[in-house]
């Protein structure tokens, strides 16, 4: 069996990285939306939506922290995407 090595060009590597970043971003954005729904449900269940209230649910606090961390990750990935993507890829993502 004759196997030929396939070397990807820098452009192909960047295109692959951009595609992966886009997929990860989509997954993270979806997760943030789900977490926000869970936070709202927990606040409704507890009848408290003020985070400074001592009765504010611990689950909602934890979910809020998780959501905020995901938002920071999304911001970092969006910056990386903007640095790596070709202009035509950025236009199609918007």
Highlighted features:
3 helices, mainly alpha, elongated, 94 residues
Short description:
By secondary structure, this protein is mainly alpha-helical. Helix content is 76%, strand content 0%.
Explain what you see.
It is a single chain. The protein has 94 residues and is an all-alpha fold. The chain has one domain. It has three helices and no strands. The chain has helices at 10-46, 58-84, 87-93. α1 packs antiparallel against α2 (58-84). The chain starts with 9 loop residues before the first helix and ends with a helix. The mean pLDDT is 87.
- Mean pLDDT equals 87
Q: Which residue ranges are poorly predicted, with pLDDT under 50 across at least 5 consecutive positions?
A: none
Count of separate DSSP helical elements: 3
SS-based class:
mainly alpha
What is the global morphology? elongated
Beta strand %: under 5%
Helix content: over 70%
Described by strand count, sense and barrel closure, the largest sheet is:
none
Number of domains: 1
Order of helices and strands: HHH
End-to-end separation: 45 Å
Radius of gyration: 20 Å
């Amino acid at each position: 069996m004759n196997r030929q090595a396939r070397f990807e060009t820098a452009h192909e590597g960047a295109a692959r990285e951009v595609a992966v970043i886009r997929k990860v971003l989509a997954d993270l954005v979806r997760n943030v939306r789900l977490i926000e729904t869970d936070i709202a449900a927990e606040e409704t269940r507890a009848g408290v939506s003020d985070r400074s209230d001592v009765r504010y649910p611990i689950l909602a606090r934890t979910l809020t922290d998780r959501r905020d961390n995901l938002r920071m990750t999304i911001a970092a990935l969006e910056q990386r995407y903007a640095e790596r993507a070709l202009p035509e890829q950025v236009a199609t993502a918007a």
